[in-house]
Amino acid sequence: MTPPQTLYERIGAAEGIERLVSRYLDILQSDPQCAPLRARYTQGFERYRRRMVEYLSGFFGGPALYIERHGLPALRENHQSIPISAQMRDLWYGCMLKAIGCEVADPALRGELEAAFWQMADSLRNC
């Protein structure tokens, strides 16, 4: 019996995550409605792109790149200094939904990714 594939494998491994994160950042940077969210990226988009790719690799069941390079992610703790309202959560999640829609053809995989990203986004809301 073949073991079930991880989300990492199903999304296309490293290349799939790179494409998804790149598409997310393209949408974030081009959508005028996302200006308040863009302003939060004070350390630059390239740094964020690298860290998001590293984090998602392990989060989706692939290599634990973030942990290897930076230690435990402590995602919630790392975002406590950034006010994340329902509006900011929704802007972030909306960009990610668009990216998933562009990059993921399989409806079942899209649904799983949308649910995982919703849980992540909502857990970071802190105001």
Report a brief summary of the structure.
The protein has helices at residues 7-11, 13-30, 35-38, 45-59, 65-70, 75-78, 86-103, 107-124. It has 127 residues and is mainly alpha-helical. It has a single domain, classed as Globin-like.
Rounded to the nearest angstrom, the distance between the terminal CA atoms is 47 Å
State the helix count.
8
CATH class: Mainly Alpha
| CATH T-level fold name | Globin-like
What radius of gyration results from the CA coordinates? 14 Å
Q: How many structural domains in the coordinates?
A: 1
> What is the approximate shape?
globular
Which band does the percent of strand residues land in?
Answer: under 5%
Total number of beta strands: 0
Give a quick account of the main beta sheet: strands, pairing sense, barrel closure: none
Task: Report the structural category.
Answer: mainly alpha
